[in-house]
Amino acid sequence: MSNTLMENPIAAQSAWPAWFTAEQAIALAEYEKSPTPTRKNEPWRFANLKPLDLSAFVEAKPVASEGRLINASAGLAETSAKLVLGNNTLLHRESSLPAGVIFETLETAATKHTDLFKKYFMAQPVELGSHKYAALHKARLAGGAFLFVPANTSVELPIEIFQWVEGANASVFPHTLIVCDENSSVTVVDYFKSADKLPAFACGVNDLHLAAGAKLTYVSVQDWSHETTAFHLNSTSVHRNATCTALIANFGGGFVRGESLSRLVGEGSRSEMFSINPVEGTREIDQRTLQDHVAPNATSDLLYLNALDDKSRTIFAGLIKVEPGARGTDAYQKVKNLILSDDADPNSMPGLEILNDEVRCSHGATNGPVSNEELFYMQARGIKRDAGRRLIVNGFFNSLLERIENKPLRAHLEQLLAKRLAIA
Amino acid sequence: MSLKIENLHANIGDREILKGLNLEIPKGEVHAIMGKNGSGKSTLAKVMAGHPDYEVSIGQVLLDGLNLFEMEEPDQRARTGLFVAFQYPMEVPGVTIANFIRAALQARLPEGEELDAVEYYHHLYEKMDMLKIDRKFTSRAVNEGFSGGEKKRCEILQMAMLNPVYAVLDETDSGLDIDALRIVSEGVNAMRGPERGLLVITHYQRLLDYIVPDVVHVMVDGRIVMSGDKTLAHKLEAEGYDWVEKEILQQA
């Protein structure tokens, strides 16, 4: 008989230190006592609540097709390290990282680098509605990736993390924790993939911490099966003169709830928050964001692109919050919806809360169809209507990928996108 | 074998713009249409290409005997062998020239057959070099932020790559300086031959010094009213269109 998601038969053999399993018990109690969200909660306005019934999901079994998943964990041609996890367990690790860089499973880090772990693990507040699911994540967390880049260290080639789910109704709790110390730089690509076209549940957290002068490019390629229910709770904290570029590509998932908090806590810090979301069928992408400007003279730039076909649905609710001390803030927030079908349902709720007068802020949401002129031009060259439409959607997203500075990474993402849109 | 336009009437909304146009371009010839602004020259190009804003009420266009208007979608007409170089080419953000032309060539291949990438780039660079287009342009978005001259060169590049049987060039000279005009004209002239018919639509005789036509037609108010050899273009340049209109009135 399957165990439900809330039971944890392998807890006894857990790789976590005892102090963490004790925290997990508290988190489980927190999850159970937290009410299930309703639409009356502001962060759940317009949300579809049906996917919050998690009763069908069960404990993930150990991965059966380990070799296949490791082989399929192929991304960039050149990387400096790779970690492959399947059903919450480490399957494969390779690394040629500079000395001092720590790239481990999360549970190893909890034991071997306890101070770092305790300082940064889920250290950011969960303010965007999924407090309950953050508690669930912590309670059931079994594995994940931990990266620490020491001060003044540049990791030239990107690091890749693959987090797989396998099996019908399996539950996974992916976790990526990245800590960039002062003046370090690194690029990380985090892939979330399904071994099969089956329903599954993913409840993930990723936290990015950038100390002064650090530079991080983080790309999430979310490619769960279209039958998957997924939560992705992301946070970023950026210190003085540090720059974080984070791109979330939601290629998969049937229902995806994404929450992204970016806190600009150091003067002159910069946070770029990008997302590309091709949605079709009855898929839903529900994204909530907060750009929290705490420090002065910081910049945040959010650009989310959705292309909606069939009866798909998106929600974007974003807030720029400028705290009283954050003079000289530059904050931008834009969501663009490319509407490919009359039945698609885009919902946009951009927002501002400005408690300091010396700021530059803009926000906006646009909805538009595929341009008939562009489509005609393509057809006039012999390109079939449907292929032309896909090219236009591809172009719509490519214009955002241009913001990724690392050329091999950009080319790789362009390839993944073209494949996703059935162009290549 | 020819591109034959028969009694073509077309309107945009309630306004009729083409009012019974007849024209035949035999394969192997270059014809020019000259006419004032508003005579319907660009409408003719767009109607043939299948622009959805225009409605054809009467008439047909036969491409080697195949009726273009029986092909509902513009892409079918293009794959049959028609190419229209537009006066104002559209911008397609985020789609690179290389991917755009590749998609157009791919669309001409049978289902399941893949374009050879190496051969494609070789061919593309060859044509770009001929048109003096920087190879860096392959990764630029189609027409986005291009100057007028760059857009026109990009149109001719597409024509050279797609190798149509009949091509209509709508005001390809507008926005070109004299050097660009020469380069574009060389590109067009390179495509002249017994296997192709070209229709050059222009406002000015200037272009026809570079692309010398076999036949020149004058268009007034949605119809071809006069045809002649290349000297007709010189006469129009020197004397304007008033005498043409007078002559028609006298005939009427």
Question: What can you see in these coordinates?
Answer:
- The complex is a heterodimer of chains A (about 425) and B (about 250).
- Chain A is of the alpha/beta class.
- In chain A, about 20% of the residues lie in helices and about 40% in strands.
- In chain A, the strands form 2 sheets. In chain A, strands 1, 4, 5, 7, 8, 10, 12, 14, 16, 18 and 20 form an 11-stranded mixed β-sheet that branches.
- In chain A, helix 1 (about 20-35) packs antiparallel against helix 5 (about 130-140) and helix 7 packs antiparallel against helix 8.
- Chain A starts with 17 loop residues before the first helix and ends with a helix.
- Chain B has about 250 residues and is α/β, with parallel strands linked by helices.
- Helix content of chain B is about 35%, strand content about 30%.
- Chain B is built from 9 helices and 12 strands.
- Chain B has helices at about 40-50, 75-80, 95-105, 115-130, 150-160, 180-190, 205-210, 230-240, 240-250, and strands spanning about 1-10, 15-25, 30-35, 55-65, 65, 80-85, 90-95, 140, 165-170, 195-200, 215-220, 225-230.
- In chain B, strands 6-9-10-3-11-12 form a 6-stranded mixed β-sheet, with helices on both faces. A 4-stranded antiparallel β-sheet of chain B has the order 2-1-4-5, with helices on one face. A two-stranded antiparallel sheet of chain B has the order 7-8.
- The relative contact order of chain B is 0.18.
- The interface of A and B includes residues 377 and 382 of A.
